[in-house]
Amino acid sequence: MRLKAVKVLGISITNTSKNEILEEIQKYLVQPIKKGQKTVKIFTPNTEQVVRAKRDPRFMQMLNQADVSLPDTVGVVWAGRILTKKCPEKHIPGVEFMEDLVQLAVNRHVPIGLIGGRDNLAVDTLNCLSRRWAGLPGWAQDGPEIDRDRLPDDI
């Protein structure tokens, strides 16, 4: 995918409109699937995640593996405005983007995958989406259990 991006505190943030991102994803989806073809990774870093990534190099590395990294919160956009000259114009809430993306997936019969969250969030989300969009192919997996007692106080 060829999408513009900027670095905000070391995190690559996609710097194009929601419509342009959706157009690029549509182009990707109409191509024939090739053996070994990679999946599209879409992340929605918010302000807290960007701050955490500054302290956690593994987390930063993971976030920077995204093909699309939406500026999910106004805080990410503001940081981009202060720290870069070519910042995202406005935030793109992940929930709104996901709804557009799910509609694309249903129309093209493309499976989606949801990973993460606590308390069965990914699985419950897929169940909710499947009720809203009949025939949605996909899978979901919860994120790893986190022992909150072992986290540093500043997280």
Helices and strands, in order, run as EEHEHHEHHEHE
**Overall pLDDT level:** 86
Q: Strands of the biggest beta sheet: in what spatial order?
A: 1-2
**Tertiary shape:** globular
First-last Cα distance? 33 Å
Low-confidence runs: none
Count the beta strands: 6
| Main sheet properties | 2 strands, antiparallel
Radius of gyration: 16 Å
The proportion of residues in beta strands is 5-15%
Q: Work out the helicity level.
A: 40-55%
The DSSP helix count reads 6
Secondary-structure-derived class: alpha/beta
Quick structural gist:
With 155 residues, the chain is an alpha/beta fold. It is built from 6 helices and 6 strands; from the N terminus they run E-E-H-E-H-H-E-H-H-E-H-E.
What would your notes on this structure say?
This protein is of the alpha/beta class and 155 residues long. Helix content is 43%, strand content 13%. Strands 1-2 form a two-stranded antiparallel ribbon. It has a two-stranded parallel sheet with strand order 3-4. β1 and β2 (11-14) form a beta hairpin. The longest helix is centred in the middle third of the chain and has 15 residues, at 94-108. The N and C termini lie far apart (33 Å). The relative contact order is 0.15. The mean pLDDT is 86.
